[in-house]
Design a protein that fits this description.
With about 90 residues, the protein is mainly α. It folds into 2 domains: about 30 residues; about 40 residues, no CATH class. It is built from 3 helices and no strands. The longest helix is centred in the first third of the chain and has 30 residues.
Length: about 90
């Protein structure tokens, strides 16, 4: 019987502590400012409209053109290495 009481007491303590923790979480969330979205879902610019992505696409297109014209395997490897890292 005493073991049952200990289990019951431990369970009640755990429930009380979890209720206090949840209340503290709710209080902390209500005090912190809510983040604002930069732009609504429908108004976000696409990746293709970003200047960096446009420049990168042009750079890759030029490298691919060079790669198609090149026949030397060593030079082709150099070009492929350039495509994977910006220099």
């Amino acid at each position: 019987m005493t073991q049952t009481r200990r289990i019951l007491a431990a369970t009640l303590c755990a429930l009380a502590l979890s209720a206090l923790a949840q209340a503290a979480d709710k209080e902390q969330k209500s005090e912190s400012p809510q983040p604002t979205q930069a732009a609504p879902e429908g108004k976000r610019p696409s990746m293709a409209d970003m200047p960096f992505m446009k420049e990168e696409a042009k750079r890759l297109a030029a490298l691919m053109e060079r790669l198609q014209k090149e026949t030397d395997p060593a030079e082709r490897r150099k070009i492929m290495a350039e495509t994977s890292c910006t220099q």
